[in-house]
Amino acid sequence: MELFNVTQPAFFLLTGIPELESSHSWLAGPLCAMYAVALGGNTVILQAVRVEPNLHKPMYYFLSMLSFTDMAMSIATLPTVLRTFCLNAHSITFDACLIQMFLIHSFSMIESGILLAMSFDRYVAICDPLRYATVLPNEVVAAMGLGVTARSFVTLLPLPFLIKRLPICRSNVLSHSYCLHPDMMKLACADITINSIYGLFILVSTFGMDLFFIFLSYVLILHSVMAIASHEERLKALNTCVSHILAVLAFYVPMIGVSTVHRFGKHVPRYIYVLMSNVYLFVPPVLNPVIYSVKTKEIRRAIVRMLRHIKI
């Protein structure tokens, strides 16, 4: 649907997966299953940490923040994705699209910040275990969570206003089944330099710096672990990081893949880019509770005890 001489369309049209429109009804089932796993799995993690006294530690408080963020991300995308794929309903009002865009980018940035906080937790636990309780008391953990959240909302607050100032007159058809800032700004028939520069600034100053400091923390962790004489103790120390490393890979690998394809894969079919974008948003909330349930013995035991108590 083409719009001409319109400064603000009443609504946008969301898109499923190009060239696979006939398969949307078949994709609805797997999407519903992914949402069920994401919401159910993260709810179980939150409940396990809440009821199990042994899990009242900084590592698991950060895990609770991660699970809550994953649930929020799923809830933010769920209405439009399921409407698009299950009900073939593609429209979303302009203001609702702005709100969804802000929430998706915000929760994504919060998740990045929490992964950084978790890497700091692992660094202190392995490199300075005697001061662990002193460095990370509950007050500091709460302050880190609030700081990550505040950073996200303050940094991203200008985005809706930067979009709202643009005249949208090329089209009102978006490339995904949810609203994203890069997708919306490309529909403008005005100079989008400010939007592009600010988007790049956000990407480098938050996600880029978070990833750099996560990498740095693991360099320091490896340096500390290599100084341990016993091979078994080395493996035991590194094993406490496996879940976090997998969570970092599940979050950043799809993000880097999408960015690479978007900037350099001009000849890649459009449905590949859309599929990768969906993987970036949907896979971390699904994988994170599975990773921590399988790889973290304390979480696994707490979940088993909780399920047994429910059964009784």
From TrEMBL:
<protein>
    <recommendedName>
        <fullName>Olfactory receptor</fullName>
    </recommendedName>
</protein>
<feature type="transmembrane region" description="Helical">
    <location>
        <begin position="211"/>
        <end position="229"/>
    </location>
</feature>
<feature type="transmembrane region" description="Helical">
    <location>
        <begin position="271"/>
        <end position="291"/>
    </location>
</feature>
<dbReference type="GO" id="GO:0004930">
    <property type="term" value="F:G protein-coupled receptor activity"/>
</dbReference>
<dbReference type="GO" id="GO:0005886">
    <property type="term" value="C:plasma membrane"/>
</dbReference>
<dbReference type="GO" id="GO:0004984">
    <property type="term" value="F:olfactory receptor activity"/>
</dbReference>
<keyword id="KW-0716">Sensory transduction</keyword>
<dbReference type="InterPro" id="IPR000725">
    <property type="entry name" value="Olfact_rcpt"/>
</dbReference>
<keyword id="KW-0675">Receptor</keyword>
<keyword id="KW-0807">Transducer</keyword>
<dbReference type="GO" id="GO:0071396">
    <property type="term" value="P:cellular response to lipid"/>
</dbReference>
<feature type="transmembrane region" description="Helical">
    <location>
        <begin position="140"/>
        <end position="163"/>
    </location>
</feature>
<keyword id="KW-0552">Olfaction</keyword>
<dbReference type="InterPro" id="IPR000276">
    <property type="entry name" value="GPCR_Rhodpsn"/>
</dbReference>
<keyword id="KW-1133">Transmembrane helix</keyword>
<dbReference type="InterPro" id="IPR050402">
    <property type="entry name" value="OR51/52/56-like"/>
</dbReference>
<keyword id="KW-0472">Membrane</keyword>
<feature type="domain" description="G-protein coupled receptors family 1 profile">
    <location>
        <begin position="41"/>
        <end position="292"/>
    </location>
</feature>
<comment type="similarity">
    <text>Belongs to the G-protein coupled receptor 1 family.</text>
</comment>
<feature type="transmembrane region" description="Helical">
    <location>
        <begin position="94"/>
        <end position="120"/>
    </location>
</feature>
<keyword id="KW-1003">Cell membrane</keyword>
<keyword id="KW-0812">Transmembrane</keyword>
<dbReference type="Pfam" id="PF13853">
    <property type="entry name" value="7tm_4"/>
</dbReference>
<dbReference type="InterPro" id="IPR017452">
    <property type="entry name" value="GPCR_Rhodpsn_7TM"/>
</dbReference>
<keyword id="KW-0297">G-protein coupled receptor</keyword>
<feature type="transmembrane region" description="Helical">
    <location>
        <begin position="59"/>
        <end position="82"/>
    </location>
</feature>
<feature type="transmembrane region" description="Helical">
    <location>
        <begin position="241"/>
        <end position="259"/>
    </location>
</feature>
